[in-house]
Amino acid sequence: MPVRGLTILVAADDGDRLHAALSFAAAGAARGDRVRLHLHELAVGLLRPPIRAPADADRARAGIPMLAELLEEVLALGVAVSVCQSGLALYEIDLATLDHRIEAQGPVGLLAAAGDDRLMVF
Hints:
The protein is an alpha/beta fold.
């Protein structure tokens, strides 16, 4: 029986929620799961430099990866990361300024790609 993939949707402009979503994406990828992570609309703004979350200083003191580090780890693990075209427009972000491994995708494309994946929403 084929293993279902994992699609993670981040819908909030909240760096700590994105950190949690990235943590689950990394865990799934480390298990060998096919994982995709999508930042919807307001969440896209979290990718503007500097990439950080409110609790990053506490995480650094505890030896936990900060938001930017965790994003890099997830991309290195092969997680398919996409951002909403509306979010790019909302924040006037040019996709070319983001990491080349991040793609633009709308809701229709995300749902079509997700198929019967498990879905987590942050």
